[in-house]
Amino acid sequence: LRLLPQQTQLRAETAAATGAFERKRNVLCCLITRILKAEKRLHVDNLVFRVMDACQKGGSGPGLQFLSFCCHSVDVLSCVLRLLSQGHLRRQPGRPQVLEF
Question: Which SUPFAM superfamilies does the record cross-reference, listed alphabetically (predicted)?
Answer without folding.
Answer: Winged helix' DNA-binding domain
